[in-house]
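Researcher: First entry.
Model:
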Amino acid sequence: MGAKIKKGDLVEVISGPSQERGGYKGKQGRVIEILSDSDRIVVEGVNYVTKHVRVGQSDRGTREGGIETVEAPIHVSNVAVVDPETKKPTRVGFRVEEVEKDGKKKTVRVRFAKKSGKDLA
């Protein structure tokens, strides 16, 4: 089964507090990582958390650690794929197409944006 959201897709946060209230609603970013076991994704520039890392030493002797800000996972239902034509959130559909490659016909599933009908990469 094909996934509606894939790594590298441009997505927009569609739920939660607005940006004026300190949230991420309406913010767009690329998908960095997909955690399929918990139905969560990590989006670039969205859901920042501060993480305290224990101070240690690397192989070269430089000190590592302190307070870092990293992106935390967000549930997949709270984001929508951005339509490449309208730059607005859209739902994703699948279309079965027949492609001829090296003289052989092959059926492939193609993801497309439901608002504009454009194919998604």
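Researcher: Second entry.
Model:
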Amino acid sequence: MLDNTPLDSQLWDWCDNYYGQNKILCLELQDNQQVNVNLLLLACYLDSPVAGANPRCYSLSQWQSLLDVMRQWDEPLLIPFRRLRRLAKSHLAIHEYQQMLEVELMLERKAQRSILHAIQALSPEGTQTNLLSYLSLFGLSAQAVAALPLTRL
């Protein structure tokens, strides 16, 4: 199980860096496959060497439960706000749009804390990588996942 306190900052920093290197692909998966980027980044983090020597692989059903937790946050709050931000972009001054991006980032960080809280209740029971387990929820095959041009950290 994950220790929520130290991982919160560590995970956020790692995910922020990783997202910066894979932004286009992350947004493409979000927009075209409805992949939750926070969960995508968590899966990549858990599969990375920085997560520790003992891999924590979660099963398909465990990733589904994490996705269900995220949907409770995303559907009423984050997704509508993201749509509003995108619609408002051409009608706002740069600093106003930047403020909207900052609010969205705050919502993303709160969502990530929800993930960390939810994962506390799980004991790893997966037999494949977290990335493959998570993305298979969206119909991506092992070959498609392996072919994703994700930067490895």
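Model: Note on the second entry: The longest helix spans residues 4-33.
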